[in-house]
């Protein structure tokens, strides 16, 4: 890899960096996702209309692609 096959993953677990070759992956902001989920849930519990948000992700390029 990556001459023959390109491989990519999602979530950037510890396995991605430790694998050989290291896996190209998308990283998500888990701390912010968790905080926003709690905020959205509390808003709905308090009677606010449901809403959604989109958070940024980051491409982490490693040797697999």
Describe this structure in words.
The protein is α+β, with helices and mostly antiparallel strands and 65 residues long. The protein has helices at residues 14-18, 30-45; strands spanning 8-10, 24-27, 58-60. It is built from two helices and three strands, in the order E-H-E-H-E. It has a three-stranded mixed sheet with strand order 1-2-3, with no helix packed on it. The chain is elongated, with a radius of gyration of 17 Å. It starts with 7 loop residues before the first strand and ends in a 5-residue tail after the last strand.
Summary of the model, kept short:
This protein is α+β, with helices and mostly antiparallel strands and 65 residues long. 32% of the residues lie in helices and 15% in strands. The protein has helices at 14-18, 30-45, and strands at residues 8-10, 24-27, 58-60.
Strand count, sense and barrel status of the largest sheet are:
3 strands, mixed
User: What proportion of the residues is helical, as a percent range?
Assistant: 25-40%
The portion of residues forming beta strands comes to 15-25%
Compressed to H and E, one letter per element, the order equals EHEHE
- Radius of gyration (CA) equals 17 Å
Unreliable stretches, pLDDT < 50, 5 or more residues? Answer: none
Strand arrangement in the largest pleated sheet: 1-2-3
What is the terminal separation in angstroms?
Answer: 7 Å
What oligomeric state do the depicted chains represent? single chain
Distinct helical segment count: 2
The coarse overall form would be: elongated
| Structure classification | alpha+beta
Number of E strands: 3
Q: Give the rounded overall mean pLDDT.
A: 90
């Amino acid at each position: 890899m990556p001459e023959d096959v390109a491989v990519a993953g999602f979530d950037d677990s510890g396995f991605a960096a430790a694998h050989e070759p290291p896996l190209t992956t998308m990283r998500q902001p888990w701390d912010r996702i968790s905080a926003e989920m709690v905020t959205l849930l509390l808003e709905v519990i308090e009677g606010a209309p449901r809403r959604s948000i989109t958070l940024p992700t980051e491409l982490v390029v490693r040797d697999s692609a």
